[in-house]
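Collaboration report, partner site 2.

Our partner group contributed sequences for two proteins of shared interest, and the home lab folded both. The records are reproduced in the order in which they were received, starting with the first partner submission.
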Amino acid sequence: MSSNRLIKQAAEWVKPAPEAFDLPSESAQKVEWLRCLPFMLLHLSAFAVFFCSFAPACIAIFAISYVVRMFGITGFYHRYFSHRTFKASRFVQFVGAALACTSGQRGPLWWAAHHRMHHRHSDTDEDFHSPVKKGFFWSHMFWFMTAYAYPTYTKQIPDWKRYPELMWLNRFDWIPFVALGAVLYACGETAVAAEWFGATGLQWLVWGFILPTIALYHATFSVNSVAHVWGSRRYNTKDQSRNNLVVSLLTLGEGWHNNHHFFPGTAQQGFFKGEIDPTFKILCCLEKLGIISSLKRVPDWVKDKGT
């Protein structure tokens, strides 16, 4: 690799990702290892857990960080920005997008654009992350490490391009992510936190940022990989989407993937009794509080077609 190419990939750690109207004429399926070095180093940093003592508060810190940020992904990146299954004010949509950015899974418009393309081409050669066409591990994580998947394809998100604050956040999605890590470390270093929680700044950083971020990555990725390989099928869709209870438990209800692919135009993923969908329950609470509105529920005819 040339020195210019090395510099270019290193600069991509912080500079805005490119925006493109459509897919490139020639797909670049090669993994850009240098650009993705922070992603890999974050995984290695999990070993820091062996160099800091454990406190009972660490479990609570991990759980809160994981659940709150997972809701940012499922409630806003997926059910709002990708599928528009409820309405929100400009302020609420920005806050929801910023919350989801703290998960380290790119910006709201990038996420929505790629997800919309996935639905249009699910489990075909044009699907970015089909385990059926491209293998399990490619669909799980390697796909987004390529030059092909790097840009935000603006053709897919004409409805969101008119919001300059969302375009800015999409270009600098790493800022909320890094800020969260800094805030968590600072919280742990305060005397009040040390007295109340008995956890140091390093413990807050490891248990509140590093470990839950890695868990968030692979739980979210499992919807693309696991939920297209293992599970049950209530609906005869054209793809291989599956309903998977384990994935649902890890992702606040996103694992009812066959339901979702049959009818993506609802804020619900669990269509039937026993299909646990915490994200939808939280959205219902937000609707009652007047924070969001027009929450789209699953129609009866959709349930009637399920087996």
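Second partner submission, folded after the first:
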Amino acid sequence: MDSNLKLSKLMAISVLLVLLRLRSWANAKPEVPCFFIFGDSFSDNGNNNDLKTLAKVDYPPYGNDFPLGPTGRFTNGRNLQDFIVELLGFKNYIPSFSEVKETGKNILRGVNYASGSAGILDETGKYNVGARIPLTQQIIQNHKIIIQDITKGMQNDLPAAKKLLNKCIYSIQVGSNDYINNYFIPKFYDTSRRYSLSAFTDLLIQQLSNQIKVLYDNSARKFAVYGLPPIGCTPNAISLYGTTNGSPCVDKLNQAAVIFNEKLTPLIYQLNNNLTHAKFTYLNPSGSPIDPAEIVKNGTCCKTGGGAGELCIRNSKPCSNPKKHIFWDGVHLTEDQMQVMANNAYSCSSPVCANPFNLHKLAML
């Protein structure tokens, strides 16, 4: 049987399981007490709004299908982590770190630290995009502030705070920008002159491993770590680089994602073996087969030219039916495609989507 057909059947089963579970969640408690989110624009829900950066989307048509309108989410409605939050059974979305600082919202259910254009490396995005919150800052600075606040809120009962933090899920979705906003733009960064693609990826994996271990040292025990999607198949990538050898996508970018994922998977197994009482799983956001030709055919839902050229133009009129499009803007998926990714991460039974287990099983461990 064709591999795409097999995967399509698995996806259909996954969606059915998700729908069945949703019916029983009306009054249920979430599967984990708290959910902490680290990453880039696929997960960002407003942390970039007050930054001096090209990577912010606090304006229409972003949020066109979201009840609160433009919030800083890089899509027309809910983003990847919003759907994950729903699937895990939370009644409310996880607040952004910037919102928590301003409003003092309840942090016991978790915090979203993700930042558009952020990378594993601190320099990623700095010289071509502007301000952003790198993964190191998300973990070492911002998350530690929240841990301190949680501990204070629990009457400085450190054992109780650690017990709570042990039960949370820590989602890490990052890495694309280290290629598209660093390695492959030599005008701003010299990494492609200093490293081969494989050596650069080794650097990313080592740095990511170090950052994960900081979370572990701060009581994190359940980790969901995302691989990279085919970053050479975005409308923006195709526009910037052109297609390769008859392929509808940019092969060098996709090859970078493949190398990253191939090196990330062994890291997950290594961490599972070496870090006591910790559970790690690798989630593949590109687990759903998308015909690259459809990307070229359908284009983006909104008219692009904002940000560094890949974002929606401020106040522009989007397409009438985002469901017919894979991409909302030049880089980010529509809400419907975000939901497909989330369903795969949560309930897929194939190692193509989740390895060694899906997000639901991670929550149950």
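Feedback sent to the partner group on the second submission included the following. The mean pLDDT is 92. Residues 251-274 form the longest helix (24 residues).
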